[in-house]
Amino acid sequence: xxxxxxxxxxxxxxxxxxxxxxxxxxxxxxxxxxxxxxxxxxxxxxxxxxxxxxxxxxxxxxxxxxxxxxxxxxxxxxxxxxxxxxxxxxxxxxxxxxxxxxxxxxxxxxxxxxxxxxxxxxxxxxxxxxxxxxxxxxxxxxxxxxxxxxxxxxxxxxxxxxxxxxxxxxxxxxxxxxxxxx
Length: 182
Fold this sequence. Notes:
The chain is mainly α. It has one domain: de novo design (two linked rop proteins), CATH 1.20.1440. The protein is built from 7 helices and no strands. The protein is rod-shaped and about 85 Å long.
């Protein structure tokens, strides 16, 4: 009788431990996503300052500025990880095009306000990349935990679902940049 009670007690403790582990991992995924969200909001807040600074110099580039504004609005309105990743890829593409156009405006490139916002944006992009990596690591840990035996049984019983990775949509963003010093 004692042996049966000990076995039941051990099984109950294992069950509780696995459940708590799943909850902790799910919360770590949510926390990692909130870190990405903070950096994306910061990015979204910096873009209007960059556009406003550039407007005075880039009178003939209204289409480029408009595409950034539209991409920013879509990115801010995205609701799922996949939609957010797609919208952010579009925004990154618009920003890349913008910075290519900026090369044609030496006065703008020398403007202190523009340089300050550009530096802040560059720093934010690095933080986004770091946060994205951290988020994807947490998703990997969580998804592995809900797929492996025996925690997959508990995950199924309590409706733990796999989380989505924050992946790049745009194949161009995955490409290695070409460096040419000639």
